[in-house]
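Input (Olfactory receptor):
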Amino acid sequence: MEKTNNVTEFIFLGLTQNEEMQKICFVLFLFFYAIIVLGNLLIIVTVISSQHLNSPMYFFLSYLSFVDICYSSVTAPKMISDFLVDRKTISFVGCIAQLFGVHFFGCTEIFILTVMAYDRYIAICKPLHYTTIMTMRMCSQMVVASWMGGFVHSMVQTLLITQLPFCGPNIIDHYFCDVHPLLKLACIETHIIGIIVVANSGMIALSCFLILVISYIVILVSLKTQSSEGRRKALSTCASHVTVVILFFGPCTFTYIRPSSDFSEDKMVAIFYTVITPMLNPLIYTLRNEEVKNAMRKLWSRKVISSGKAKG
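Output:
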């Protein structure tokens, strides 16, 4: 069948149609996005500038923060600006680019979180071999593999959608372009493609989540043989990661593990993994980590001293 595409733009319904609520949401999400960018940038700068934060855990954390900024920037600025306009439109090309970005950075984040769990597993369960296994070369290869995995996944999702014909309607009941809302607008039967989407997105999220759960069960079991101080330190670092994993994987798995549906809750759930989790990550990792907090204090004191000398 010849592909026909009469749609040049899509119209978002957004989070709410209420004008007063849109004004409140504009201020609220602008504040959230500022925290996402500033908080994650602070972690990146702190890790890069601190000599004490040179372990693989912080190497991965800096990349997680970078991905969080990119991930939220794909959807949040557009969503925030749309709160100020009545007609929330996006071009067809812009929609496909947004779809690619959401899945590229989202999947990369999933892989980096999985790599971080592997790092904690080696550090706690095989401490004597940690430095020989988790070399800088190995860490770099893991990060590159995470980016490549995200790219391949996103390309599959994007190519599946771009092959579909869109002849109207063009109204998307969401605040960004995603596979499920776009599948509903296609002019052909999309049941098979929907299954492929679930197999691609859902199974990546679910399988990585299961790997994470198994790795942390193994870690908890191995902690029985360690001292109380070692247990406390290990649990402290793992607790932050587990919290982030639950916040990100829970909503993400709910959205992508099932076929396309008419659940209006999808866009509310999406807020968690596109805005809330990237915003909370810096807080979770800094509030529960003394090394990061100390490094930030030193960075701040150095900045105050250097600015004082400059004025003097």
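The beta strands are 9-12, 88-91, 171-172.
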